[in-house]
Amino acid sequence: MSGRRGCPPSPPPPVYTPVRTRLSVGRASTGTLQRDPPEHNHVQTPTDESSPLPAVIKLRKVQPCSISSSLPSTPGSEHKRSLQRTYGVAGGGPGGGAERAASPPRVTLHSIITEYLYNQHALCKNPVVTCPQFNLFEPHKCPEPRSGAVASFVSRGAEPRNVAMRTVRRELGATSSVRAHAGLAHSHFAAARTLRLQDDDAYFTHSIFHPTQQQLLSATSSGDIKIFNLFTGTEENSYQVHASYIYHMQASMDGSLLLASSSNSWRATSALWDMKDFEQLFTLESEEYIEFSKTSCDRIIGTKGETATIFDTRSGRQLLILAPTISNHYAKNRATFNPTDELVLSDGVLWDVNTGKQIHKFDKLNQTHSGVFHPNGLEVISNTEVWDLRTFHLLRTVPALDKSEVIFNPTCTALYAVCSDQDSEERNQFDTSFKTLDPYDYSSIATIDVKRNIYSLSVSRYGTQISVVENLGDFDQVQESCVKIYDVGRKRDHEDDAEEDEEDDLAGGSENDDGSDSGSDNDDDLASSLLRDAMMDLAEGDSTGESSREDNDERPARRRRRRRGGRAALGELHISDTDGEDLDLGDLLHFEVD
Length: 594
Hints:
This protein is of the alpha+beta class. Helix 9 (520-544) packs antiparallel against helix 10 (549-570). The strands form eight sheets. Strands 3-30-29-28 form a four-stranded antiparallel beta sheet, with no helix packed on it. Strands 4-5-6-7 form a four-stranded antiparallel beta sheet, with no helix packed on it. A four-stranded antiparallel beta sheet has the order 8-9-10-11, with no helix packed on it. The protein has four domains: 18-71, no CATH class; 121-176, no CATH class; 192-508, 7 Propeller (Methylamine Dehydrogenase, Chain H), CATH 2.130.10.10; 520-590. It is built from twelve helices and 30 strands. It is extended and about 170 Å long.
């Protein structure tokens, strides 16, 4: 202790004050941050490695060129720099003005609409650079390319509207446009032949083509079926099959059997006939409507009210009765098979033929027609409504089919619509025109006006002709009846118009609507005036003699013309009591007309 007293005391350990790391940032126009090496002139740091004092870090912004010059370039660094997004900086003066990064784009109404229209244009099949004017209310679609080359139609598969282009396209091997051809053909109809009854007491009610395409079967209001030759137009045979009005007929596929339905004031009757000898095979009492099955004629389906019954064709035995639990009570229910004979539609109810169970009941949106199957087997047409059989949803509404009977041609390229209201209480519902529609999209093709009430329309086996029952007058007072056969696809010429005008004159010039003689008084007046003029010319000729050669040359020609008219009028002249007041009968004895 004593020895240590004489020694000087040891110095105290140094006190170290913690020093914060300082960052110095230098600005440049563009560049990155770089860490500077520590500077010893600011703070003295001990050289001992165990010293806890941190080193001073200084950061300053340098030019990219200095970095690239000082650091070796590697592919990775170059790739990272290439992916960086450069933003423009607002430059100041040379002394280092304020620099700002560009603000991000704002969302505006213009940008939203532009993006929306860009997306629509991207969905176009054939986008064009110069787009037409956009419309926010309609979806955008670039126009389809049009080319005059026929090869473009073949390669692109378009449908040219010109019939010549379609023909050339078909010759080059492309598929023919069936819809376009059918639309052109079913927009023109020309009358080929007119058939009339010899009996004035009856009138035509229905007509169908014989499957052999050589005869036409026409039903009358008196229950007769008359067979006409299609080539000559003459009546070959007539058979009494019912005692009253026949409103429906259907022949079998081979032409050996015939179904006929008639009605009277108290009941309806249907029967099956053998067309070879026209012998009745059996009768279906109280069946209002009957028809054959579609694939074969081994079954017959009949309709009585809301109940449908399936019969055997050979024996007439009853096979199945389809009566709905809740019926729709359509005014004109007609049960029918689907194209495969697996389903039945009756009174708006879909049935399974194999099990006899009810599948679905369609909504009743009209009071008249229960519906028919489309030949494609996927749709049901009930008046103006078209239903999908796969989902039982309403596909579309066709106003042109309102209260109309739907008839398809054999190739299913056209649809005929005829107003079928033939009730005496609704005479004004008769339609004088029939319509043709496209069975694919139900677009209208044409409307043909025949100027008479249409009672029935049927299509030939190949769809080249149609027969139309045309009657003039009310339901119970038909004044004129005929069956006209029209050629499908042939335009009317002037000869057809002239023949139709002559038929109208012959039909309407003899009698009025009430059946009285309308032209007798006018004919008498015309004949009297012609005779009076002829006699005055003769009297003048006798008194003047041979006064002038020119007058004698002109008068004989005028006399001949008038005398021809006088002879024509004398053929139809009926002398009445009043004729003696205008004409002196003594003059008729002195002057010769010829």
